[in-house]
From TrEMBL:
This is Glycoprotease 1. Its cofactor is a divalent metal cation. It is found in: Mitochondrion. Its main location: mitochondrion. SUPFAM superfamilies: Actin-like ATPase domain (SSF53067). Keywords: Acyltransferase, Metal-binding, Mitochondrion, Transferase, tRNA processing. Binds 1 divalent metal cation per subunit. GO terms for biological process: tRNA threonylcarbamoyladenosine modification. Residues 88-391 form the Gcp-like domain. The gene is GCP1. It catalyses: L-threonylcarbamoyladenylate + adenosine(37) in tRNA = N(6)-L-threonylcarbamoyladenosine(37) in tRNA + AMP + H(+).
């Protein structure tokens, strides 16, 4: 069954619908909705809702009392968290697949799915226990529905639907990259839309203007690999310990090296846009490793001090250029973003690679030079986590973007609404790249376009 068959979707806060079909009525003191439709009606509907008009029925003063469970399984971390509407993090649990990463040198979808399936129940249970609540205290469940590996996404979505149906809870489908950006608003309460965001992870390198929740313009993306992938491969080829993923290992080793010693060239100098490329830098790293006769199969812990120092020089030089590429693109993106939205005051930097201190320090300088402010979540909220999903769920819930509880049992052949390839927004005209436009097949319409269409159909 194809995960791209989204038309028979299940979680569909973003689906197109002429009129809200469902009506929530909220109790005054708790923020738990009660459903005005009968279960019979529920199952007879196609499960496609966009309930913005009904949000007015929620008691506004009780918004802070929302308690949302967030579930994240889009890649190699099984994560869950419980967050309150006022931003209080009640719990956060992450189970990473470090051993699999070490074994396979990357994410193997089938193995990752298996690991998620084993971890999901205990991770969610621990998140609820640590928050000192039970499912019946929840106001809603938020879950990542894309982008990501469909086999992995499915595990989280199934779990979320199970809880939502058993406890009669609304469910919110979350865009993983929107969550990376929006979690910055939990950290920095002054952070208002619009803002500029650089989202850097294992699979994505995005520069976006966040006009509003669910409204994004993509200034740039990678034409091949993301920066996190380049960190991971560099770590592997240098024989580093991948148990915390490659990035932290390269960062640590880079501290020992001379960042000017290996002359890597900065990618895409000749392209005056905001797109990224890390495939060429990866090749440069591989060639440098080969030319120095470094054998990555020998772990760094057992090599001579000379070999170690040679590896450290490569790590430091790679990191310098990888970050320089970010700096150059951010400089241009700030210019473009201020043309589009002159009121922008912040650059948000998030995603796993934003945990890197050099990334944070260098981008802080770029931002200051341009009289903006950097907002970078703490490392535990930069790498994949359940808090960002719960918080994005809360933000969407407040906008009325959620679905009603699913029916109790999904049939065996149920088609889940999973969106493995799902852009955040449309490309800014000046940022288009031929290379990427060739690869648009099987892409879900962007989050922004789906929300816009829903809003238009509502009015
Ligand atoms: O956002 P994330 O946790 O998962 C994805 O959505 O991909 O990002 C994971 C990526 C990995 O490639 C990892 O090596 C990288 O983030 N990463 C880092 C650091 N911590 C994690 N890269 C560089 N420096 C770090 N300290
Ligand atoms: Zn991520």
């Amino acid at each position: 069954m194809s995960s791209l068959q989204t038309l028979s979707s299940t979680i569909s806060r973003l689906s197109l619908l002429r009129k809200p079909l469902f009506c929530y009525t909220f109790k005054q003191r708790t923020t738990r909705p009660t459903w005005s439709s009968s279960p019979l009606k529920l199952s007879s509907l196609s499960n496609r809702f966009f309930c913005s008009k009904n949000y007015g029925q929620i008691n506004m003063s009780s918004k802070d009392d929302l308690i949302v469970l967030g579930i994240e399984t889009s890649c190699d971390d099984t994560a869950a968290a419980v967050v309150r509407g006022n931003g209080e993090i009640l719990s956060q649990v992450v189970s990473s697949q470090a051993d699999l990463l070490v074994q396979y040198g990357g994410v193997a979808p089938k193995m990752a799915e298996e690991a998620h399936s084993q971890a999901i129940d205990p991770v969610v249970r621990e998140a609820l226990d640590k928050a000192n609540i039970t499912e019946s205290d929840l106001s809603a469940v938020a879950v990542t529905i894309g982008p990501g590996l469909s086999l992995c996404l499915r595990v989280g979505v199934q779990k979320a639907r199970k809880i939502a149906s058993c406890f009669n809870l609304p469910i919110i489908g979350v865009h993983h990259m929107e969550a990376h950006a929006v979690v910055a608003r939990l950290i920095e309460r002054e952070l208002q839309f619009p803002f500029l965001a650089l989202l850097i992870s294992g699979g994505h390198n995005l520069l976006i203007v966040a006009h509003n929740l669910g409204q994004y313009t993509q200034l740039g993306t990678t034409i091949d690999d993301a920066i996190g992938e380049a960190f991971d491969k560099t770590a592997k080829w240098l024989g580093l310990d991948m148990s915390r993923s490659g990035g932290p290992a390269v960062e640590e080793l880079a501290l020992e090296g001379d960042a000017e010693s290996v002359k890597f060239s900065t990618p895409m100098k000749q392209h005056k846009d905001c797109n990224f490329s890390y495939a060429g830098l990866k090749t440069q790293v591989r060639l440098a490793i080969e030319s120095r006769n470094i054998d990555g199969k020998i772990p760094i812990s057992s090599v001579s001090s000379q070999d170690r120092s040679s590896r450290a020089d490569i790590a430091a030089s790679f990191q310098r250029v990888a970050v320089l590429h970010l700096e150059e693109r951010c400089e241009r993106a700030i210019e473009w973003a201020l043309n589009i939205e002159p009121s922008i005051k912040h650059l948000v930097v998030s995603g796993g690679v934003a945990s890197n201190k050099t990334v944070r320090d260098r981008l802080d300088q770029v931002v200051k030079k341009n009289n903006l402010q950097l907002v970078c979540p703490p490392p535990s909220l930069c790498t994949d986590n359940g808090v960002m999903v719960a918080w994005t769920g809360i933000e969407n819930f407040r906008m009325g973007r959620y679905d009603p509880p699913p029916p109790v049992d999904d049939p065996e052949d149920f088609l889940y609404d999973l969106r493995p390839r799902w852009p955040l927004g449309e490309e800014y005209a000046e940022g288009r790249s031929e290379a990427r436009s060739m690869r648009k097949a099987r892409m879900h319409p962007s989050l922004t376009s789906v929300i816009q269409a829903s809003v238009q159909q509502q009015s």
